[in-house]
Amino acid sequence: MGSLFRSEPMCLAQLFLQSGTAYECLSALGEKGLVQFRDLNQNVSSFQRKFVGEVKRCEELERILAYLVQEIHRADIPLPEGETSPPAPPLKQVLEMQEQLQKLEVELREVTRNKEKLRKNLLELIEYTHMLRVTKTFVRRNVEFEPTYEEFPALDSDSLLDYSSMQRLGAKLGFVSGLIHQGKVEAFERMLWRVCKGYTIVTYAELDESLEDPETGEVIKWHVFLISFWGEQIGHKVKKICDCYHCHIYPYPSTAEERREIQEGLSTRIQDLYTVLHKTEDYLRQVLCKAAESVYSRAVQVKKMKAIYHMLNMCSLDVTNKCLIAEVWCPEADLQGLRRALEDGSRESGATITSFMNTIPTTETPPTLIRTNKFTEGFQNIVDAYGVGSYREVNPALFSIITFPFLFAVMFGDFGHGFVMFLFALLMVLNENHPRLSQSQEIMGMFFNGRYILLLMGLFSVYTGLIYNDCFSKSVNLFGSGWNVSAMYSASHAPAERGKMALWNDSVVRRSRVLQLDPSVPGVFQGPYPLGIDPIWNLATNRLTFLNSFKMKMSVILGIIHMTFGVVLGIFNHLHFRKKFNIYLVSVPELLFLLCMFGYLIFMIIYKWLVYSAETSRVAPSILIEFINMFLFPTTATSGLYAGQEHVQRLLLAVTAMAVPVLFLGKPLFLLWLHNGRSCFGVSRSGYTLVRKDSEEEVSLMGSQDIEEGSTPLEDGCREVTCEEFNFGEILMTQVIHSIEYCLGCISNTASYLRLWALSLAHAQLSDVLWAMLMRVGLRVDKTYGVLLLLPVMALFAVLTIFILLVMEGLSAFLHAIRLHWVEFQNKFYVGAGTKFVPFSFRRLSWKFSDDRA
């Protein structure tokens, strides 16, 4: 709990790693995840560091493993993903593993290449078979007529030669046959006509079945074509056009005997290719299955090895080049674990000289480490989204565990909706170890990561729903109403009392559309409802007026308490950082300014609730008018809430007026007084910079610490601060801006908390409208059709409730709750200017194979 309240104390440690044991020591550190390395080679490029060759070797191994994973996925072979990760490989096994992987890659690429060639040849032979079958009926040529070739005359001189003239000239008739994509047929035919000027005859036929393209592997529809042409020049043009349209051209047999021989040969070759291809695929699958058994462990080992060399590149060498020096941030509680990890790494490497570490003083601000578990992680992420906390300042996440779901529930208060959200989150919590939930992505992954936040939000919404007495916009009468309607009838009272009170009778009940219950009548109001709002208000016409007044005052009370708590937490920061003057000159004036105005407003609200009853409610003064008169000083006397109210209010205004100049000028003048008290002074630090480094505020602060703690005279080598470094104008301007922001923020932030009332009202009204438009209509239908209509109406009501009231309204209330914490609460004490502690840990690496796919 201490770690969650404030970040853990850190120290800067220096590691001395022997060159032969550095790899094993970092492997042990990576398994434990204790330290964050500092880069000691920031001025050296990544390509000039010592272990860049080893990093390139790891990247080459990652490329080979990515290729193996790609081939294994392509073969639909399941990849075993172990729950435990193997350690980083010893240096002796790295070369052996690299040689095995390279040999496996060469073998796989060769087998895959042969398989692709066999497959391509098989697809081409299948296409050739289909082409011969379809073109068999295209052209019937006379086998005996084979004219000899003569030079074909130029086309420009005789462009209208018919077939008889071609026979007379003895031009040779040629054929081009093949397959073309279905979408290219029309353009292909048009191009042939334009280029060949009609000296071609094109015949098409669509294949009955789709075939796989040997080049792309895509299954598409094909057309078989046969082109008849005259002349060699026309034949060259036709072949060029076929190449441009990526046609698959196959030889066309000149005789029926040749066709039959080709078909028989194709049938034999296809059968042989099927046999060889199946054997090749079986062998390839055996190789891949064997590789799949170890690919997970090897991928994990390579990633760990690469991470180790990345960290080694951040280390510096000593003058002898035999020892690596590293600087790390380490929590003070983990120093013993760090020493044990170095000893384990040295022992594993078999070195005679063990690596060691020692802590070094520093003036740099350490990173922030707040240990979380699966329950507190979601709330810490909400705070970190605003800004990582400064080192050792109060962490708002501890208090957000309660305040965040509570403020959400104030805006989302409905028993039914909260219970549905609670059940949804409870299911995810109970099944959090299910792999499908833990590996879910996008929206479902966000819900799963925030399952404990949803659980508390739903639980608190159930509570506020009971307070509001709202369950799907309807009230629940659990304990019986505290209002008695029968007591309003005149017959239930003595004749002497009837003339003094406005009672009901039969004629009044018949004539009046609206009846009013008078709590001052004896027996009408029997006492408050035990839990929450009385269910009779759900029937009242002034229900909205009553709830608005209640929720608005409740929002103001909760908001002022929330902001006051934030100012009080700032006092804990000042105490921890030993800035006691900030308590008296900043925090106390802030509290007085806030409580003397808005704290007094809470007092008036609660006082009116407790003092005035139903009998005296008509003479009760307005809180709003009284609060305004507090600042206006009216000349006419008012009744007031209590005796002596005017004197109390003037005293509070006087305290508020005195707090403002103290807030504006107190801290700058105090720092100026400290500065003038010692013209030149030094600053000695044994810890860390807790405020803005080298700031004038810190200079004066350190001087005050020396006075308070009775520090010894400054030693030689301490940093000397001259008088010119103190800038009173800058300090004064910073404090004035902060004070103006705080004073105006008290007013605007208090008004901002009214969103609790507005969102609660909007949610209740939307729920009421949804019930009136759907469920009320379904329930009012007669018995004949009511049952049939009620089922779809209930289904539609459930769908709209989930998507509109739970998802959309829930997201709106969630965002407003975040805003109230970030702006109104955290700016009172939380700086959020730190850096997150990122340890060197193998658990941060991803072991998912999806990340390795090429």
Automatic annotation (TrEMBL):
Compartments (UniProt record): Membrane
A single GO cellular-component term on record: perinuclear region of cytoplasm
Domain of life: Eukaryota
Coiled coil: 94-128
Topological category with respect to the lipid bilayer: Multi-pass membrane protein
Record-level Gene Ontology MF annotations: ATPase binding; proton-transporting ATPase activity, rotational mechanism
UniProt entry tagged with the keyword Iron: no
Family: Belongs to the V-ATPase 116 kDa subunit family.
Protein name according to UniProt: V-type proton ATPase subunit a
Organism: Myotis lucifugus (Little brown bat)
Taxon lineage: Eukaryota, Metazoa, Chordata, Craniata, Vertebrata
